[in-house]
## 1
Amino acid sequence: MSEKLYSLLLRMFPWDFRERFGEESIQLFRDRFRNETGFCSRLRLWIDLICDLAVSLPLEHVRLAPEFAGVAQSGASRNPAFQILREGSPRFGAWFCGTAITLVSLTGLSVAIATVAHHPAATPLIFQQAYSQMSSPQQITQPVQNESFTFDAAERARVIDAVATDAREHYGDREIGSRVADSLLAQERNGGYDGIFDPTAFADLVTHQMQGMTANATLMYFQRPLPLTTRGSPTAEQLDLKTLKRATIVGGPTAGAADARVFFRIDDHFGMRLADAADTRNTAERLTETKLAKK
Amino acid sequence: MPKQKLSPLPAAAFQILLALVDDDLHGYGIMRHVAEQTGGRMRLGPGTLYTSVRTLLEAKLIEEVDSRDDANPANERRRYYRLTSAGRKLARSEAERLADLLRVARAKKILRGEYV
């Protein structure tokens, strides 16, 4: 079986090589296969053979091709891209052409990947992937309720609506922001969040979805929905370091402080959205530094 | 068909010439000798081995001898290769060139361990 496989691989060599050395090559394979027993030895044998094919196959075909033969014999090739390495070191022109072609190819590939990743058609997959990474929503099967709020379908819808509005109006890249908003709203309409009663899981899911669509790791929503409608700067008590977990800026890296919407996590069930603070980020940092100094 | 240059002598070709210094060998024998000479670092596959063999044959540095019946149960007939006088001369000059390089390296005291 192995010999047959190697015989098939040998067919990739030019006809004259097979005619002259085909039988000997198979004999060599047979000898090695007979003497190199055991899993590791056989694995090394196949690795050697594949590497050998990768190196010698192109050289044999170049050797056979008359157009390349002319280039090799002439020595000084007029087309540096086809200079044969075995005949000598590549000239500067060959290096330049090879580098230019490589850079153009990589750039084109990057643009293609970025285009596909941001295409709306890719969004459902991102949703699926993000959702599959989340803790199972079935762990909490009933709406969470405490003295502050009830996390139910209505609350989910309100959160999605608010996050979508923020993304559409304040994200640095308006097109991406609109796309994020449309995707979140579509998910909500299609029942994509039905059955999620765990506020933490819901916040994580929305965060992952937004990060997936924007490729912006600073974009987060981690709040329980209440009180999204709260406005104004947080109090010192509300920004206590023990409860200040993460902050998210829905505005992208190009948005100014005035446009940023910052969510602070206050405790397990309470969050604050700072919609109207003129210098939100500096305020938060100043308060944070104050707290650190006091400690 | 273009001929492969042998100046400077490629490593695989030099190792094959060295392997054939003491005795005529077939392909697997050459491969085994080269592996022993290089401490296992160079294991010639069929493609590399026989492209080098063809180049050495064309340059008349080795020659093919009559096939022999190997002393094995399968009684396989194999092609053996022998070093020609030109091949021996080239192998010697290449070895001397490498020895000169080694002499210079030793004089500059850049070698360590068993190569000092």
## 2
Amino acid sequence: MATDAARLGKARTGEQTREEQAEEKQDQPAIQRVWEEPKGIRGVLTAVGSIVNGERMITVAFLFFLLGGINAALMRIQLAQPNNTFVTPEQYNQLFTMHGSTMLFLFAVPFMEGAALLLLPLALGARTVPWPRLTAFVFWTFLIGGLLFQMSWLFGAAPDTGWTAYAPLSEKAFSPNSGLDFWLLALLMISVGGIFASAILMATVFTSRAPGMSIHRMPLFGWAALVMSAAMFFAFIALFCGCVFLEFDRKFGTRFYDPDGGGSPLLWQYLFWILGHPAVYIQFIPAAGITSMALPVIIRERVSGYRLLVAAFVIAGLLSFGLWTDQTLVAALSPLAMTFLAGASVLFAIVAAIAVSAWLAMIARGAGKWNTAYLFILGFLFLFILGVITGVMLALYPFDAQMHGSLFVVAHLHYYLFGTVVFPIFAGMYYWFPKFKGRLLDERLGKWNFWLMFIGANAAFFPMYLLGLLGMARRMYTYPSVPEWNTLNLISSIGGVTIAVGVLFFLYNIVSSLLPGEQATANPWSGDSLEWATDSPVPAYGFQRIPTVQSRHPLWEPERVDRGGEKIVHLVERLAEWPTTWRAALVTSARSGEPQEVYRVAGPSVWPFVAVIGMTLVLISFFFDQLVFLAVFLLGVIVLILSLIGWHRRTKEEDSVPSAELDEFENSYTVPIYAHGSPGISLWATMLTILGFGAALALAIFAYSTLRSSAPVWPPDGIARPDRSVPLIATGVIIAAQVLMLLAAGAGGSKRPALLKLGLGVGFILDVAFLVLQVKSYVVPPLSPTTNAYGSIFYAVAFLMSIIAVVGLFILLGTIWFVWRAYHGTRDAYRVRNAVAYWSFAVIAWLAVLTTLYLTV
Amino acid sequence: MHIRFNALLNALALFVGTFLLTGCAGASLTAIPSVLPSTLNPQGPFAASIAGLAWFLFIVGSIVFVGYMGAIVIAAWRGRNASPRTSPGASASSRLIPIAGIAIPGIILIGSFAYIRNTVNPIPSNSPGALVVEVVAHQWWWEVHYPDGGVTTANEIHIPVGQSVEIRETSVDVIHSLWIPQLGGNMDILPGGMTSMVVQASQPGTYRGECAEFCGVQHARMDLVVVADSPDQFKQWLDDQKTVPPPPTDAHLRDGQQALLGSACVYCHTIRGTNASGTLGPDLTHLASRQTIGAGVLPNSRGNLAGWIVDAQGIKPGNKMPPMQLNSDQLQAMLDYLESLK
């Protein structure tokens, strides 16, 4: 009895507290209530904010950094002595493969993306990124992809072909176990996340800057994030294509990289290095972004050479693609390509020199104590300059001909990457930790952290330069006893341990700061950029009152942060209190930062997580055969489609603000407000989709011509030229559909909805007909994707075209549904415009495919 | 915060202890005389030219590094002791950036490139009239042909001192790369393709060649012995290699030959003049004339050869040679026979 009463009592108090909580929620300012993420397990799965997901990304990425570090430590123990048997050859090969892959794909790239998702909106004075649900999606792809990747250890099948996975070593014939499949499927997942993360960051820069922040006033971190994400966007698309080809080779027996089937091992190198090279060399840009934000604040000096730095970032971004060929240098390149390469490396060195000189100019005029963040920046410069100098050496063909494949390359890579990834990240963590956690990190521990890592890095990596010169190849699980090699390897191993001890100091510093650490104020460093204008830790909504910007260093001119045109000031003040039922954010113009519209930002949702589960099912189906494969694959596709529908389903919240209130807002502030989708952001979504598919198609056609150029006869093996009649009919159909839809959208538009409906409807039917004809034109009996490399690439290019068309049909279907059900006239004309624009792209894509596959053979 | 030095030292001591322990476990497997294959100790004209380039690059690189990093450290050091500013400095255009960022590196880079262009001869990929050696890379050994002499051998090439030798390379499985640091250069080897490079030795001697492109589990143990002989010695060696070993007259050796020909050896190995004509493994026709076995893994001695035949997997795990089940007599006879294949 007594216990029952107690339980009842407890239950009642529980109810009461829930009621109390609800009441408390009512008392909170509206903005807090709408932006707060759900609590508990629901919150874990549904949180969509850029801050929470950015924090999750960098936390998980840092854990992967520790894992990659453990791999490295085991390797250094093995190499500390000659003829060592601490690990087996297989284990060593797994260790260096996992070390490289983990550090690059699970730490360097995602950490920088996560840091940008976290920091970029705040530095730009935005409440969030344009696609918060996509941010959650990116995090889940990264987490699950990363776990899938590491899970290979548990199956005793960690990949062991090096992080570059050169074909044909990575083909089924030479790597029969599932290690490579783990590697490929995880990378496919991570590249999808990477593509979307890049899209989010680009759209944030172009749509979400604070009012008054013209592109010339954007902090340098914004430029860095823009260039980085633009490069990674294309790089990940290349990696995705390359990995799909390789997995298909392994799973279905296609012949993309199989020399016996007319495939080309060099094609893998090309596709891989289109990613690999920017992934490595682009790291300079976020590093430079972090440095350009923190350094001026520490030494109390304005940025020098802003324009030159921006130019340097952009050129470095372009060059990182131009330089990719140097990895395949010794393989087979013409003298012309080598001269080009030397020229590109000179340009990259000059870009680096511009950035270094700009920072030197600031340091020379400014003054500041050597705190930990500053020390890490100086350490970055030390390692980076040495890395760039040795990089120029390696770009010289005769020198590379000696050093290619030696430890000299490993030393260069580590000076460059430890310099541009690890040190700036540590600088950034010491600098921004108080902003997000509200507590300062200990400086004394920080100094130990820095000096151990700095000395350790030099001790670990400098001997590798010498070892390379002394003739030691890379990726050797052991080496014969030669006195010079023995000593240098031992020094390198001791350096590795020193780094590890330094990292332990950092972990201890984090823990001790989170427990009883010193409280941080909103702006502990007296910083100039907008993230310091809001509270520490940062609230979920970023800024209650969106800041207005009049200069490049807004907080150093405090009177300017809340000034500006009267209209704008009224607008941001109103947005601090209203709307009270959904998350509102501002779209500003890409160039001048003028407010263009207010829109509803999507709220918490479990669908991004479900979508990633669907994608995971699709990917892991590749581990199975026959029926199980098909069942898991289809289940994954169904989950994915359902989640996409759920993701975009209309919610009650969308209609919760009375339209009279919306109209009143528009009349008072003369800025349109959109509760059902933003034209400005939708335009970027359309453009990025077109860019993404365009890049994928360009790569597929590039792969086609690479394979074609290495074959003596094309099509090879006596295969007949593909028939042109069906593709030509398909061309007529798609063009007719497009003309019809353009006319309907132009002439019909909002004035004559009936005409619009007719045009879109007939256009849709014709486009379906096009798809049917297009599929018919490549499913030709004698040729299959496994016949030879021609068959593989022919199907790949044609199939990609089918995907472009299917995506277009879904877009068209959604638009038609919208026009039928809820067409609001001119306000929503953008939907039709975007759908028709996508199909214009599809027409161009088809003409390119037609020319490549049918007309020029 | 107090740092416990003792704890730190203990951790280091523990780690060094780990080195010693794990180090003892390994057996020394060095075969090729432990010459340091240093690119800075070149033994041929191409390697010497690159070594000269390397020294030039180190000098210029060091000056550039010390110049930039020194300026940064000095500037930061001076700022460290200055009294902290209350208001941030004004944005001023700096003449330093175009000078130190564009002009100086531009001059250094263009000057260096011009110098290099005029002084360094890149390794040629072919040389008319040169001796041609064909190398076919396998996972994890080297098949060697001398097309002019009709000679096939493995894991060891002989070249005449002072002559250009064109090495033509291809692979039967994955991508490899042949690197002979002291003679110059390193060239990727592609399956289904042919690449080539020219090497030349100026001194007689034995040099180490290694695979420099990761090619699978035994990438680390895929060495190639390069022996540079005087032209006369080279000619002698080539003539010796051309000969087909006569059938053994000694009964004991005949037993050895029978043991070999009656075993699985013949599926993978060739001994000219016998019906052993497999091509998956190295040609054994003149095995006894070679310095190493297992692609540089072990010196070619009777004991090592016995160990290799019986348990190649224990010595070079993952290689394609299966263990041979032989009784002691068969093994001894087979070793005698193999040792007679000079």
